[in-house]
Amino acid sequence: MDKLPPLHEPDAQDKRTRILWLLTVVLFVSLPHLLHVNIWITLLLLGVGAWRYALEYRNWGMPSAWIKVPLVFAALAAVGFTYRSITGVEAGTALLLVMLALKILETKTGRDLTVVSAICWFLMFAAFLREQQLWAIPYILFGVSLSVAALIQISRVGAVLPSRQVITKTAGLIIQALPIMLVLFFLFPRIPAPFWAMSTGGYSAQTGLSDQMSPGDISSLSLSDSVAFRVRFNGAIPPASERYWRGPVMTYFNGREWSWADRGEPIVSVEDLLVGGTYYEYELMLEPHGREWLLALETPVQWSQGKAYLSANLQLISQTPVQQRIAYTARSYQLARKQVPDVERHIQAMRYLPTGRNPETLAFALKLRNESSSDKDYLNRVLDMFRQQDFYYTLRPPRLGNNPVDEFLFTSRRGFCEHYASAFATLARAANIPARVVTGYLGGEVNPINNDLIVRQSDAHAWAEVWIDGNWLRADPTAAVAPQRVELGLDEALSDRDFDFRRNMRNTQLFHQAILSLDAVNAAWNRWVLAFGPEMQSDLLRNAGFDKPDMRDLVLLMAISLSLLMAALTYYLRFSIRSNKDPLLQIYETFCKKLAASGVTRHRSEGPASFAARASRLRQTDRPQIELITQMYIRLRYESVGSAAPTEELRQLTELVKAFEPTSG
Amino acid sequence: MVTDIASAKAVTDKLANEVGQIILGKEQEIQLALACILAGGHLLIEDVPGVGKTLMARSLARSLGLSFSRIQFTSDLMPADVIGVSIYQQNDNRFVFHKGPLFAQMVLADEVNRAAPKSQSALLEAMEEQQVTVDGESWELPQPFVVIATQNPAHQIGTYPLPESQLDRFLMQIGLGYPSEPLERKLLRGDDRRGMLKTLRPQISGDELPALQHAIKLVEVSEALLDYVQALTRYTREHPDFELGLSPRASIDLINAARAWALIQGHAGVQPEDLQSVFAAVADHRLRLNSASGAMPGQAAMQVLAEVAIP
Question: What is the predicted ipTM?
Answer without folding.
Answer: 0.85
